Amino acid sequence: MMSTYNWIDTIHVTEDMLERKDQRLPVIWISALDCTGCKEAFTRSFEPTTLDAMLNFISLEYSELLSAAGGFQVEAHKESIFETYKGEYILAVEGGIPESDEFLMIAGKSVRKEIIHAAKNAKAVVAFGSCSSWGGIPAAGVNPTNAGDIRSVIPEDIPVALVPGCPPIPEAMIGTLLHVHFHGELPELDKKLRPKAYYQKTVHMTCHRKSFFDQKLFAESYDDDGARKGYCLFKLGCKGPAAFNACESMGVDRCIAAGFTCIGCSENGFWDKGGFCGGKKRIK
Ligand code: SF4
Ligand code: SF4
Description:
Elements: H1 7-11, H2 15-19, E1 25-31, H3 37-42, H4 50-56, E2 58-63, H5 71-84, E3 90-94, E4 105-106, E5 109-110, H6 111-120, E6 124-128, H7 130-134, E7 160-163, H8 170-183, H9 196-199, H10 210-214, H11 225-228
Parallel strand pairs: 1-2, 1-3, 3-6, 6-7
Antiparallel strand pairs: 4-5
The structure holds iron/sulfur cluster (SF4) (2 copies).
């Protein structure tokens, strides 16, 4: 599929804005119970490229994985950003947040407490991925750490945007930060706090296989003639009709383009509602 996404139009950036030499947006990225998939996705944006975004608009000041520095040095730098850019930096959170401080510590500090501390002076908090947005995989099943989402730990008056997905679309992550950089505030959010620009439609609504769905032409297995012809994957358990995400509308090559069903990874509780089981359970 060809990507149809244009970040400048989506974020409403004018030429004047591009020519301004604003300070880059400081971002502190704290990882809780995560698999690092969101960070890896973040490094793979094409529109704009992650490199362009980082060199020109976003300054990633702290990330346990992506910072070049480590140890005491980077922890001290993080603390200095809280003061120097009070009210100006974005706190990005990846991963579900365990109920107990002891379940996850970094640099000798409870990650849960560090998120609360970092959120206090942040301009806004952006939850990257389904784990920080909804609890996600750490909260699935018996939820052994009683993991919760970002809103279970930070005060209600702190502005929050959720960018769910497992992982989220890289361009949606970068685009949300760029909106803050260029407009000074979070983008318009829906009732569930997701940026409308990326989460207004279901995958099904703009799916490139939708014409086959409308004609009732379905693949019955992953290796039958229908699958080879690119027919709709609904009978294989596709959850695109219940998954709000921009994979198909932006034309980024994700599950359905790769010939696999949508598993609704951007939806709350997707793992307990089927996960990778081939879609036998449907999201209600
Ligand atoms: S493959 Fe899934 S999202 Fe696409 S048309 Fe079929 S049911 Fe809808
Ligand atoms: S197609 Fe569905 S499962 Fe795949 S990335 Fe998009 S929302 Fe997630």
